[in-house]
Amino acid sequence: MSHLKQREEKNCLNCNALVNDRYCSICGQENLQPQESLWHLITHFFNDITHFDGKFFSSVKYVVAKPGFLTSEYIVGRRVSYLNPVRFYVFTSALFFFIMFSFFINDKDLKLDENEPAYLSKKDSIAQQKGSNIAAIDSINANEGIKKSRFFEIIDSAKKNSNNNSGSFLGKSDYRDRKQFDSLDRLGKVKANFIKRALIDKQFELKEKYDGNNARALNAVLDNLIHLVPQILFLSLPFFALILKLLYIRRKRFYYVAHIIFTIHLYIFVYIQLLVISIFDKLAEHNYLSWLHVINTILGLGFFYYLYRAMRTFYEQGRGKTLAKLVILSLSLVFFIVFFLFILLGFSIYKM
Asked: What is the per-residue pLDDT for 67?
């Protein structure tokens, strides 16, 4: 409640309805004087923050300690004491990714060395590299009489082998370049459907963009993957809820949105669990704390027990049915994760 002076007028400043008490019965706005001091503004801000923090920490406590409880409370209508599920998810996921990318995920460790040999597409740069290498070797081995012609053969062989090893991502093409492909296509000698044509076109585009450098291309994909993870996880929510809807299709009182709320709270727990595992994993780098790896394994397996308890609490079915549905849900999750990984990879390459 604010400490501002109450207005004598009985019309709501927000909706102009008649106000019989301190609050408007239509929109809920407090009937106070609109002018406020800087002190009132600051205290109002801190009151909102502490109110949010109180709800956040109490909601976290229930999500972690009482699987399924918070969803049950929301569905029956007891909502004021807890953080709204959508706000809870947005805040938790934002905090999770901020902490992970700030303290636990080292961008340099994820990147590949981009100084690998490129495809033999720039003859001048290759010739220049050969010349510099020959000059260096000749100066070092002048008395050994190394022949330049033989050295060129060695360099060419090394280049080809390096390109074959590093070109797994950009791939080998049946066509020398885009010009050859377009020429054969005009002559009607290219037998490819729409999808294959799109893949070939993307392959040429990536080779031209990254000069055939496999590491640079993979780093670009990785960068796109990392930035797409939060969006893909959010988009996966309704699909996970759909699996739950199918598993509990005979339970008519659990409408689709109820499964979404259950999934939101489950995802929030996963974020918290992954954050704890990451912290323990970082601490386990010290020899005297290596035993934390065992704790992390237990925490990882504990997810299935948590999911079982959440399903039991929220859906209120017996142990046998819940275990059977847990097995089906776990198997579905494997397909579910692989499916979204392919989508994630596809979007990452598409954005390159």
From this structure: 95
